[in-house]
Amino acid sequence: MPDRRRVLFVTDLAYPARGRRYCDEDIFLTSRLRDSFDIALCHPLDAAALMDAFDVVVVRNSGPVLHYQKEYDAFREQAMARDIRVYNPLTGRGDMAGKQYLLDLTAAGYPVIPTIDRPEDMHLLPEAAQYAVKPKAGADSIGLTFVPREQLGDLAYGDILVQPRIDFRYEVSFYYVDDAFQYALHAPDPERRWVLEPYEPTDADLAFARPFIDWNTLDHGIQRVDACRTREGELLLVELEDLNPYLSLDLVSDRTRDAFVASMTASLHRFLDSQPRN
Question: Which residues contact 211 (CB under 8 A, 6 or more apart)?
Fold first, then answer.
């Protein structure tokens, strides 16, 4: 029997998420992954000190890194310097790398909520009653404010993003392991974004989501494509979450949950086989 791979599973079991319990999801996931791997759990602040003893570091529900940005940057730097395998790989172009992707996707013409970070680009924003202003380093709506168009010229540009406030019908999320779609969930009530229900995507929905997975060029890992459905029926990207997306596994069927675990297990094996350490 071959040696079992050792997984350092990074999670903040005490993180106070709004409307959901991150810890329950990671307790479930590790209980199932233990069938295939030797697993130890650790807080994100302990990962750098422990990671050399493991075959792979799996970053899951570790909370917004802005709460420990210096330590997270050091973890990334040390992991790359010491040839540590991290899952998701640290090459993601979505939220893992900040909010620049919203600007890049806007410039490239993707179906994303139009986003600018310079006053000279205000002409790229459609007319709206209000505009969302958020820090580039933000997460979980931290620092989010709304202003009318006449105040856009008075903003302190540099570390902020500006988007039109979209009057949407609902939000929907598409969950992927590697490049394979797993399931979708949606929030029927825009005022209760974390009250999610299973969603059966159409072919058109999946055709919307897939180009963002392709654009991100992550061969391995878990990604979540968050979108909103406008009053006109169009889907627009809200976020491309590739760092530590919450999966809401408690809201899907047993069959879907089992399939996700099987997909993640297979993905981890493929990643370990394709990324031998020096």
Answer: 110
Please name which of 94, 102, 114, 105 lies closest in space to residue 230, comparing C-alpha atoms.
114
- SS3 annotation, 143-191: CCEEECHHHHHHCCCCCEEEEECCCEEEEEEEEEECCEEEEEEEECCCC
* Interacting residues of 242 by C-beta distance below 8 A, sequence separation 6+: 88, 92, 93, 94, 95, 96, 216, 218, 221, 222, 223, 224
DSSP-assigned letter for residue 127: P
What are the tens digits of pLDDT across the range 174-211? 999 999 999 999 999 888 877 899 999 999 999 999 99
Sheet containing 6-10: which strands, arranged edge to edge?
38-42, 6-10, 56-59, 86-87
